[in-house]
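Students often ask why inverse folding is considered easier than folding. One informal answer: many sequences map to the same fold, so there is more than one right answer. In these notes we will look at a single instance of the problem. The structure comes first.
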């Protein structure tokens, strides 16, 4: 969305694609889960009186639109990608099949997972944790609009404390707003560390991949 209030901002998209390309050139296997909040957010639809399942399905379709836009931006820069959707739309994306996804990754392709888990009542955060576990990812990189996890919203609480490291249990017990409880529990059960960082700072994706101290890391022990 970039500086706009809705939709896809071409320059922002191209910048993200450029950073992803740099990470691919390091030889990393990279899978991406797209959200859809810049187009339609299921919870917002529910708040306006829409049926929750219907709103969630609409949100899943929005994630596919973002996935196709990201695929186009990446391929403009020479990065080979595959979009895999949890909701079958074979004219525009491959259906999600775990073995096929891992094979794409082995061949050096960037895999973009769209449509969440394919089920209503589950967030894209949960989809990220689920897909990461399925493909054997080493880490989940949670790219956000803030530079880590805080004990309060830093936009409304200027004295909010930022954590460098935090445990899964602390995230759940303190109800820290980073990922939903299902996603955190799934990551904890599978020993998947989560790095939360600001996407808008140039170079942060590569720093996170290379293990530099950036944002907040969630793991078993802090």
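Output (designed amino acids):
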């Amino acid at each position: 969305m970039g500086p706009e209030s809705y939709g896809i901002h071409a320059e922002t998209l191209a910048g993200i694609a450029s950073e992803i390309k740099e990470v691919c050139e390091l030889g990393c296997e990279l899978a991406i889960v797209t959200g859809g909040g810049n187009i339609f957010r299921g919870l917002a639809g529910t708040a306006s009186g829409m049926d929750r399942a219907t709103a969630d399905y609409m949100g899943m379709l929005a994630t596919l639109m973002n996935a196709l836009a990201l695929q186009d931006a990446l391929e403009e820069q020479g990065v080979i990608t595959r979009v895999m959707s949890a909701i079958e739309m074979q004219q525009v994306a491959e259906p999600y099949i775990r073995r096929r996804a891992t094979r794409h990754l082995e061949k050096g392709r960037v895999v973009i997972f769209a449509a969440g888990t394919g089920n209503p009542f589950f967030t894209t955060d949960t989809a990220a944790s689920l897909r990461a576990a399925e493909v054997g990812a080493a880490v989940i990189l949670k790219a956000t609009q803030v530079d880590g996890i805080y004990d309060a919203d830093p936009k409304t609480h200027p004295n909010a404390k930022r954590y460098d490291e935090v445990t899964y249990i602390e995230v759940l017990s303190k109800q820290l707003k980073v990922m939903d409880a299902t996603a955190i529990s799934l990551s904890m059960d599978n020993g998947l560390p989560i790095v939360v960082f600001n996407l808008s700072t140039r170079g942060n994706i590569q720093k996170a991949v290379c293990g530099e101290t950036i944002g907040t890391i969630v793991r078993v022990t802090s």
